[in-house]
Amino acid sequence: MERISSKTVHEGEIATVRIDRFRYPDGSERDREIVSHPGAVAIVAHDEERLWMVRQPREAVGEDALLELPAGKLDVEGESPLECAQRELEEEVGKRATDWREVKRFYTSPGFAEEEVTLFFASGLEEGEANPGEGEDIEIVEVPLERLDAAIEECVDAKSLVGLLLFRAGLGAQD
Amino acid sequence: MERISSKTVHEGEIATVRIDRFRYPDGSERDREIVSHPGAVAIVAHDEERLWMVRQPREAVGEDALLELPAGKLDVEGESPLECAQRELEEEVGKRATDWREVKRFYTSPGFAEEEVTLFFASGLEEGEANPGEGEDIEIVEVPLERLDAAIEECVDAKSLVGLLLFRAGLGAQD
Fold first, then answer.
1. Relative to the CA of A166, which of A59, A144, B6, B78 has its CA 20 to 30 Å away?
2. Does residue B100 contact residue B85 with C-beta atoms inside 8 Å?
3. A153: which chain B residues are within 8 Å (Cβ-Cβ)?
4. Does ipTM exceed 0.85?
């Protein structure tokens, strides 16, 4: 299929909506409504004993304290996913890491939204300086590895579940 | 936190955008941009030897044939997630199932979108009648269980990854 036109129908701060027109191999054409998104990163930051997560309010889904991996949007011009992940890990949980591995890229809701998440495993952790953004209310959560399944059970955020489950499966741990 | 007002700023066919205002425990108030969504279902339909997936074009992310679990939106008035999952499984892969288990509910992108996915495991499969909707171009994919890790590697759709990884972990298989 081929994108033959694109029209912005709503320009929001985060949620910009376009109607794009596509032509298919059989010659037919259809419009699709698409929510634009710059992409995001998420990080499984761990040592041999624990991993670090966060709890934060998520107004869109009416949750006061959703358990998630440290994560953030690619909203700084020119910043790579790795640089964004390094910045977010330090801002949100106050850690730096010496070993970074890109494990997976995936779409959060490919039926209507562009958002692509790049998932990293980070280890070799060192103390950094937590610095949540203005208006961000983030609690740092240490999860002992023996409580990994309990964290998976509590977690209801897709990107974090993918990260925790890949980590649990040992997938992505190899080169 | 408490939602104190809500205003629709864009009404689309799928993507409706609201700006909701929230009041926090400290008394402060903030606006949040939220993409409305009716919710969705996804199904790991399997027997002892294989599971069933689909490949379909996903225009929003520029993919001609994304490997996903059978899934669909809760867009029929009054239909429960289970009824929606039963309908979608038959429409998309032509199967009915006698055993249904709700395994997990999760949000695909809780930072800005309401979408909640209810994930089911379905077994006791019987032949039904595939009936994709108009304009849907869906290929049915049989995945032998010994190829599960290869499917996880190919898959780049968050809800499907959560389903495949929970199935692989044997999580949700118990009551």
1. A59
2. yes
3. 171
4. yes
